[in-house]
Amino acid sequence: MATIYDVAKAAGVSPKTVSRVLNGDAPVGKETRDAVKKAMAVLGYVPSNAARMMRSSKSGLIGLITGAISSKTTETEPKGLPDLLIVQGIQNVMSASGMTLMIADTGGRASRVPHLVRTFLEHRVEGLIYVAEYHQCVELPKTPADCPLILANCYDDFGTPSVLPDDWRGQRDLVRQMIRSGHRRIGYLSLPREMDAARLRVQGYKDALAEAGIDFDPALVSTGYMDDRDRSASLLWDAIDKILGLPEPPTALCCGNDEMAMRVYGILRTCGLRMPEDISVAGYDNYRAIAETLYPPLTTVELPYVAMGARAAEWLVSLIKGDTTRQTNPTLVSGPVSWRSSVTVMNHPDANTIRFPSPNGRNTQ
Fold first, then answer.
1. What are phi and psi of 320, to 5 degrees?
2. Is the peptide bond before 276 cis (omega within 30 degrees of 0)?
3. Rounded Cα gap, residues 255 and 265, in angstroms
4. Distance, CA of 300 to CA of 342 (rounded, Å)
5. Alpha helices in 143-195 (DSSP H)
6. Residues 97-118: pLDDT tens digits?
7. Domain range spanning residue 193?
8. Is residue 23 part of a domain?
9. Which of 73, 140, 251, 354 is most exposed, with the fewest beta carbons within 10 Å of its own?
10. Residue 284 in contact with residue 174, Cβ under 8 Å?
């Protein structure tokens, strides 16, 4: 590989003159510059980015830590999908910003994160982003003040800048639309209660009912999901039996995610029920491989993973550039309700009279 000394010899100049041409940090005559550039082209000389980084203290590199690459995925379980979509949103912004994204995978082991952080710092990254597979609290090693860190789909107890899905708002907006469609008895099949997303979505469900003057009935809420596939199936069956066996059963079921809704379809059909004629069903995630292929197509809420990644990347770039514009922490990103035919319109006498408060304080129907 040609060196700066080879270029200098071929061009008949000193190595210092070649350096001046490369860096543009001192005047060089046109003929001399042309001779140096010609020598570089003939020799195939490639400038050392490492050397430039040492001089400028700017690498243009961003380190991203995720578990998406090593995450095991089956045809029916979209695990790893959130991470990958968030990474896609990050990459879009970094590419437009002229920065290079370096990605490291945890291999599913949280213990590797400190090592990966150190490795990125050794490569002089200008910033770091950590992407979690679901909304959760994490604990990461501290980073130097000159290397900002952004958390995506997670947060910590130290106020590190984070970008999170607005789970409360998403569930509230979905239940609002179901109430507008005439539903008053709405069941909720939740994710495990210890999950942040489950807690926030159940609260969104309750708040939408309260806004409409509908009393919350705890008997309509039950956990319908756990990580163990076999036990989860049994749990879901039991939850549906319990809710449908109530003296006044629901006219609609909200599910903690689209995968759960897919299983609910099967259980309800086994029970001889039709969707949405006998009972309506809604999910959460808008995982289209499920939502758009189910029959009837599934009403659900978009989890805005790509937008979350983009927001995290934009925030990091602004910190690197020294932008002092104040941002709230955490930054919440919401997605729209994707209304499909799995929820029917009920002929309830109050359906067109309920008014919900809007974010600006005015009421909306």
1. -65, -40
2. yes
3. 11
4. 9
5. 167-180
6. 889 999 999 888 888 898 999 8
7. 167-299+339-364
8. no
9. 73
10. yes
